[in-house]
Amino acid sequence: MRARRTAIVALFVLVGGMLSSGVAAAVSGGGYKPSEQDCSEWADANNFQGTEPGCHNFKLNLEDGSGNRYAQFGIFQEAQDENPHAGDYKVNTNSDGGGLGVAGSFNTNWEPFTPDSCGEFDIITLPIDELLYLTGQSTHKPCSITPSGQIPDPGLTPPTVLTGTPDGSIANLAQGAHLYLGADDNLDTGEHDGVHRDCTGLPDCTSYPDTGSSHSANGPSDGGAVTVNWHPAEVATWLAALAANPGDPTPFLTNPVPLADAGFGSCADNICLGAYSRQTTLYNGGTPGQRDVYDYSNKNWDPEECSSGSVRDEQACDGGQHNPHTMDQYRKAEAQNVVSEPGVMVYGDPDPQSSPIGPYPLPAAYVGTCGVTVGGGQMQAPASPITNSAGQISVSTGC
């Protein structure tokens, strides 16, 4: 969303901090899912200023291979201009939540600043904004901070002890487990920057005419996740694939460690970074086929002004007489399966919801088991045997 550009810094610091604290050894931006946050894809729509019951802007989940949860902790989604102050947790021995365990919630009811103050993430770079403004290098007047005068209320409710009978389903974790740690920019003082939604029956929602974005909902425009997956049953399939065609290294190059995988990634204002231990799906478009997210060959970029920050930004996806498209059409034109490969990378967000901060399109960089790719977008390489159609230097190992 264009109103808070500093979200990119804060989100990368937040998710990067989770990685460095030892949660995971690698990263996965594509691992962020609204469903893991207990939200619909429309929860942070730009025309919906309220909250969805049970939706979270920060979530930690431990699940088995079928998606059954045994432990979770979250911070609740906030309405626009409200700071995060409430959340819940639950630990249970049964896949249906009916076993032994404990559950509870908390709510400090604390808004430290008035609604017209800086967003929480803006405070991180406020000294830099002030310096740029005072030295004349920026004409944008920095936001202000006005304390609300409220005193936090601990708001802790006694934990509820769950006394159900264990059914042994927790043993499923030995056969397949999924650790998810995700966050999005609703943490930034209740930011709502997804494509607008149908307001039927919803309070705190403003109706607008269709802008051609009804099939583009994909959660908020900015977010990130750390994921770790344990799947020992895949080893046999992996070995069989290698044995069936010993001359084809693809199964190894796209999944070097079949026993488990991990990933970290974050996207904000069209700038994405990530690291992955196996091939991972990051985005789903509507055109049959697959492409690597850092390979811009045949990529049709939406206009720079196009984003989900507001209904007006959604309308800017129509480039006029010479480029008449909607956001839905840009998503449909994208490959059905946009993936990362094992390695580290920086790339432009394939989701037309993003609001580019520049340069746009963002030059990409990838180094991993599938080769090396550099450039594209605003960094065009001269024609050569290793330059692809998007002006990128690209050397493949054969994935």
What is the strand and helix layout of this fold?
Elements: H1 7-23, E1 27-28, E2 56-64, E3 69-76, E4 86-92, E5 100-107, H2 126-134, E6 160-163, E7 177-184, E8 223-230, H3 234-244, H4 250-254, E9 260-268, E10 271-276, E11 280-283, E12 287-292, H5 311-315, H6 327-333, E13 335-340, E14 343-348, E15 364-368, E16 371-375, E17 392-396
Parallel strand pairs: 1-9, 12-13
Antiparallel strand pairs: 2-3, 2-7, 3-4, 4-5, 5-6, 7-8, 8-9, 9-10, 10-14, 11-13, 14-15, 15-16, 16-17
Structure explained in plain terms:
This protein is of the alpha+beta class. The chain has a domain at 7-215 and 222-226. It has six helices and 17 strands. The protein has helices at 7-23, 126-134, 234-244, 250-254, 311-315, 327-333, and strands at 27-28, 56-64, 69-76, 86-92, 100-107, 160-163, 177-184, 223-230, 260-268, 271-276, 280-283, 287-292, 335-340, 343-348, 364-368, 371-375, 392-396. The strands form two sheets. Strands 1, 2, 3, 4, 5, 6, 7, 8, 9, 10, 14, 15, 16 and 17 form a 14-stranded mixed sheet that branches. Strand 2 (56-64) and strand 3 form a beta hairpin.
